[in-house]
Amino acid sequence: MNSENSASSTVSRRRFVAGMGALGVAGAVGGASLVGCSPKADDGKKGKKGGKGGEAFDIVIVGSGGAGLSAAISAYDKGVKSILVLEKMPMTGGNTNYSSSGMNASETMFQKEQGIEDSNSLFAEETLTGGHDTGDSELVKFMCDNSGPAIAWLNDLGIKLDSITLTGGMSVKRCHRPTDGSAVGKTLVPGLLKAVEERKIEVRINCDAKELIKDGDAVTGVKVEEKGKAYDIAAKAVILASGGLGANIDMVTKYRPDLKGYVTTNQSGATGDGYAMAEAAGAELVQMDQIQIHPTVQQEHSQLIAEGIRGAGAILVNSEGKRFFNEMSTRDKVSAAELEQPGGFAWEVFDQQVYDKNKAVGNYDKAGLVVKGASVAELAEAIKVDAATLKATIDTYNAVTTDGKADEFGRDKGLIAFAEGSMYAIKVAPGIHHEMGGIRINVKNEALTASGTPIKGLYAAGEVTGGIHGNNRIGGNAICDIEVFGKNVGEVVATALTK
Ligand code: ADP
Q1: Worst-scoring range by mean pLDDT, 31-40, 157-166, 454-463?
Q2: How confident is the model at residue 169 (pLDDT cuts 50, 70, 90)?
Q3: Residues in Cβ contact with 479 at an 8 Å cutoff, skipping those fewer than 6 apart
Q4: Do 174 and 104 form a contact (C-beta atoms < 8 A)?
Q5: How far apart are the CA of 285 and the centre of ligand 1, in A?
Q6: What pTM was estimated for this model as a whole?
Q7: Cα dist. 135→138, 211, 240, 466 in Å?
Q8: Of 156, 425, 460, 480, which sees the most CB atoms within 10 A?
Q9: 340-379 residue pLDDT tens
């Protein structure tokens, strides 16, 4: 998931990430709004007394990110009213809050309206190719086939994603963003929370799920800790939607020792608890070493620089002012190329039209992350690269943008000429971004053992699941994953419980 953090330059990386200083997001989705999420005592939705005197719900969902909130809404709309969403942090939304690119989806109502030709099978093919054919083709097909309906479902909830752009590895414009082209997370999370509030589904913040309760082979509840108090909650079904592990460096390095010392784009609740709980309950974890690093992270603030900026024409240059790779290639390849450059970093360079087209840039600018110049020469001086070299780089790039062919690095997407005038640059390098591995599931979101048997009562959705993206996730596919599978798991569980 992508972060849209801002911070004062004096705040350390760790403290900033822990402080979750999301631009505007905290205010929109912070604890205060959650008071309204708790059901009134008399609305019939509060947990009933459980077997051992504790509470009991039909469905307990661990995690209030996009996957968890979507699951709650769809389960409710399918007829289950006794639902509890647990959130360990003081605010809801998880990494989904910071998601900056958008939601990839095919054959959507908005693509049709805008005359964009696409197909579910092409989306699936490009997703599998982007993951170097290591993703689970059945899960990928399911995700792509259900992506258009998920866009329509969100639209019905008042979440309109009709500004469509490209992300690396996709040949068709299918990354759906809010109408004004702003970061998707800031529209998605408040929109889902509103729907949750309207349904009076309880979201319990500061409530940390510690362990799954089992009766024989079946999962029957969750042990939680809330403000130092431990208690049990019984459930007919538990849905793990607890996100990834990027903020737990011990767990990251357990699976990927080579990532020691990397910054993370993840919010501090992304501690991998769901993997540990599921594994202890007998679920298989797949592809856990597939932790995606993102190529454009501003290091001092662990601030992810949205991929749409490259899609709108930005280039990456090294400390010599030279381009070195196809900026629109997949994240793994761009990251690797960056690390080979002197100092292991790049400058993401763009002009005024890119600045104006991407609302996020204004936020990065306010946070002090953007270096400016009134011309190429002034920018070159500010970022200490040779002015003639940077000018030649931009002139060469501009020449290629006009002939409609791929450039010398194979870039054939988002080739948009730089205009004269103000120039901007952000210093970037790779950072820990997304756990692509996780709990093995099937298309019913059932958590599976190593032999492929579903664990009764246990489901999972979102980043906590594994195998969909293989060894490289395409930008915009995380939101597609959490929305398609979040919506799906709610429906599947509700159908099972109301049969
Ligand atoms: P996804 O994109 O899959 O929805 P997110 O990162 O957006 O994932 O959301 C996952 C949420 O789960 C985060 O808000 C995180 O703080 C929360 N979470 C993680 N572990 C626990 C836990 N043990 N108990 C309760 N909430 C948790």
Answers
A1: 31-40
A2: confident
A3: 66, 96, 99, 101, 102, 103, 104, 184, 188
A4: yes
A5: 17
A6: 0.84
A7: 9, 29, 21, 9
A8: 460
A9: 999 999 999 999 999 998 888 999 999 999 999 999 999 9
- Return the higher-pLDDT residue of 82 and 400: 82
CA–CA separation, 283 vs 277, rounded Å? 9
Give the separation between CA 425 and CA 348, rounded to whole angstroms: 5
> Does the pLDDT of residue 28 top 80, yes or no?
no
Measure 400 CA to ligand 1 centroid, in angstroms: 44
**226 burial class (0-12, 13-18, 19+ CB within 10 angstroms)?**
middle
Residue (of 425, 262, 401) closest to 328 by Cα position: 401
Domain residue spans of the chain: 18-290+436-499, 293-431
Residue 439 contacts residue 63 (beta carbons within 8 Å): no
Instruction: Please provide the CATH number assigned to the domain covering 18-290+436-499.
Output: 3.50.50.60
Query: Mind listing the pLDDT tens digit for each residue in 289-337?
Result: 999 999 999 999 989 998 889 988 999 999 999 999 999 998 889 999 9
Percent of the chain with pLDDT over 70: 89
What angle do the packed helices 477-498 and 66-77 form, to 10 degrees? 30
**Ligand 1 lining (C-beta closer than 6 Å):** 1, 62-68, 86-89, 94-96, 208-209, 241-243, 269-271, 273, 462-464, 482
Question: What is the residue type of 406?
Answer: A
Question: Could you tell me if 262 and 14 are in contact, meaning their C-beta atoms sit under 8 angstroms apart?
Answer: no
Residue closest by Cα to atom 14 of ligand 1 = 94
C-alpha–C-alpha distance, residues 346 and 338, integer Å: 6
Angle between helices 137-145 and 477-498 (to 10 degrees): 90
* Cα 360 to middle of ligand 1, angstroms: 24
CATH code at 293-431:
3.90.700.10
Q: How far apart are CA 442 and CA 206, in angstroms?
A: 30
Taking only the tens place, the pLDDT of each residue in 359-369 is: 889 999 999 99
What is the per-residue burial (b if ≥16 Cβ within 10 Å, else e) of 344-380? ebbbbbbbeebbebbbbbebbbebebbbebeebeebb
∠ CA(154), CA(478), CA(113), 5° rounding? 45
Average pLDDT score, the chain: 89
Q: Which residues are catalytic?
A: 331
Token match 């599921």: residue? 278
The pLDDT, as a whole number, for residue 166 is 86
